[in-house]
Design goal:
Length: 402
Amino acid sequence: MEGETSWNSHCADDMSKDIGEFDSFSELSDEGNKETIISVDSILPDDLLERILAYLPIASIFRAGSVCRRWHEIVSSKRFLWNFSHVLSQKPWYFMFTSSDEPVGYAYDPILRKWYSIELPCIQTPNWFIASSCGLVCFMDNDSRSELHVCNPITKICKKLQEPPGMKFSDYSALSLSVSRTSHNYTISIVKSKQVPGNFLQWDLSIHIYDSETMMWATSLTEVLTGWRGGDESVICDGVLYFLIYSTGVGTPENRHSLVTYNLSSRSSPLIRSLIPVPGPLTCGRLMDLKGKLVMVGGIGKPDRPDIIKGIGIWVLNGRNWVEVGRMPHKFFQGFGELDDVFASSGTDNLIYIQSYGAPALLVFDMNQKLWKWSLKCPVSKKFPLQLFTGFCFEPRLEIAP
């Protein structure tokens, strides 16, 4: 099928498109203008060839490894991984689940505009909680919410974490992951929320933090919120944990959401002092870290019916104020067909992906160019009316392991 490539099959059929220009060149000799073919591969030292290969898209690097033994040894070496980590970052990919029961699907490469069939390690069903950062992805089960794995979806290296503290069967949980680009150490946070028995307005909320250096969990905060509950949306951005909370009936419909900021260093409380209102009535909000800036993609509700979506906006948090940086054009909004009030959206670097749960259409927004663009069509079709699609964004990296 057009646009679909098996990630596991190490083929080199289209290497000429990606790296053929590095392979050889021809020149005319002085005697008789006879043409001589010189192989660049034979004259380039390993360190220079490593630098050249490190600038390729990651899918091309895997194909390069199947060209010959020398190239395979180069792209597998520690020195190559060091070079790879110091070149310009790869564009983030988007993995789309194509089954409601099995964790199978396709990953979209925005550079080559191709979908790859890849297998995700560790995860058992698509409804698990998922968070990603700098090449790593964290999965948490949706039942007991006590089974966690951190993995690199490209290399398939995976690590199971010890069970987090706190309530096992929380009503709501929000998972986030932050990886240091220098040390590759990572922090995981889980925000758990459970209704106080017999009291609809009060909710127990706790924050649990995992440090990969100590390989230990710590309960950072426990608090009772009145009129608000936690949800399933959070992100760690520049050392600050952000998560959305939701009104339990107090206040106007326009203020159904609010943002909590929690500094992981100072760990201030109570949380209610740090609330930041969202920009107008939202049907849902999706938080993401784009180069150290907190970005929210939100469904814009109608003024008289805030539960009905009329558009999608993108905002960046500047201090305690939201700055709108994008509004989805109506033709793209219509392109989703029937769009529910909630949708999937995630991003990193300068790309934001937006996807409807009801169809495999994927829209990409480039923050630098302020450009909206549909991805190449995913090689899957909707088989029955209630089939749902979801997904997540991740950076394809070779050098980072959990």
